[in-house]
Design a protein that fits this description.
SDR family NAD(P)-dependent oxidoreductase, oxidoreductase, 7 helices
Length: 269
């Protein structure tokens, strides 16, 4: 799938559902896929007006799109969401699990309710979306592609976010397991994950924080939601790639913050 090139199965354009796509990274992913010829199911829970506006914007660009509301923390609503999308478009070819919640959980303030909230959206909803969308993909000869959006910080955790990082840290294992389970039902179904680095800074981020984010990468630039969208596209397009967890972080997870100079170390024989 290249930008601007219509991709079809016969005369039918493929369908992508992107959870949490009313704004931020999910919206960028949905827009990117729409530009590549996908019909788009825009999902939101609270940001329903933004989802409807975005769907109308996509229609204005010539993309078939519709907005769908669901609370992904409730399994029954997840199942209903997948069924409504399938009924509306007639198929589901791509699922991108982008919906997520994020807030600090210092150990001194940790409570069960917060932990459950993070796992319900960041972990269990992903499993349920994959489960029900996968059931529809099994019925299709062409199968489908599932992309889970995890987080680079599961490799290098930061302080005070243990519950969030744990909820995202389950996704690589879940991705690999689902890749096996769904391929056993239909070998044309692939499941992969993207682990984004910092691709969005808070609107009030200082120049110091912005520069620190740049310095923490090997490529010495800020990430962008489009970087994530391009990785999603790659994983959708690549028929021989499954069970992969792809960091998209400018090298941040492997970079210690300083380059190692071997010349300053004596060789011992």
């Amino acid at each position: 799938m290249s930008r601007g090139k219509q991709r079809t199965f016969g005369d039918i354009s493929p369908v992508a559902i992107v959870t949490g796509s009313a704004k931020r990274v999910g919206r960028t992913i949905a827009q990117h896929l729409a530009s590549g010829g996908y019909r788009i199911a825009v999902h939101a829970n609270h940001s329903v007006d933004e989802a409807k506006d975005f769907a109308e914007e996509l229609k204005g660009q010539g993309t078939e799109a519709n907005a769908f509301q669901a609370d992904l923390s409730k399994e029954a609503e997840v199942k209903e969401l997948i069924e409504r999308v399938h009924w509306y478009f007639g198929r589901i070819d791509v699922l991108v699990n982008s919906a997520s919640i994020f807030f600090p959980t210092p150990l001194s303030e940790l409570n069960t309710e917060d932990v459950q909230s993070l796992f319900n959206i960041n972990t269990f909803s992903v499993l349920n979306c994959c489960r029900w969308a996968g059931a529809r993909m099994v019925e299709q000869e062409t199968g489908g592609a599932i992309i889970n959006i995890a987080d680079w910080s599961i490799v290098r955790p930061c302080k005070d976010y243990s519950a969030y990082i744990a909820s995202k840290g389950a996704l690589p294992t879940l991705t690999r397991s689902l890749a096996i389970d769904l391929a056993a039902l239909n070998p044309a179904i692939r499941v992969n994950a993207v682990l984004p680095g910092q691709v969005l800074l808070p609107p009030d981020a200082s120049e110091t924080k912005r520069q620190a984010a740049i310095d923490a990468t090997l490529v010495k630039r800020l990430g962008d939601p489009e970087d994530v969208a391009q990785a999603v596209q790659f994983l959708i397009e690549s028929p021989f790639v499954t069970g992969v967890c792809l960091p998209v972080d400018g090298g941040r997870t492997i970079f210690s913050g300083q380059f190692f100079d071997a010349s300053v170390h004596e060789r011992s024989d």
